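@channel sequence for tomorrow's demo:
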Amino acid sequence: MKRAGVCKFRLYIADHTQNSALAVTNLRRICNVHLAGRHTIEIVDVLRQPERALAAGVFMTPTLIRFVPAPDVRIVGTLSQSSTVLAALGLENSAA
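structure tokens (generated this afternoon):
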């Protein structure tokens, strides 16, 4: 991934459950360290907007979708295994 690029994320959560809260915290931490000033995060609560989850094919929460840059990348879970998340997002070699 190009260092100067912007990443856009959409995180599907289920209200204020523990796993959803962990995913939000972990995603923000990862973005602040590896994509400072070069990311946007949209949070979609599937209990309030189930039609958006269905349209995106999201059936489990939390689910993260990085849709910019293409291609889309999906990660299901709390995002607590940073090295795995960074590798999936192509950020494992980015400097902090």
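heads up for whoever presents: The CA atoms of residues 33 and 96 lie 5 Å apart.
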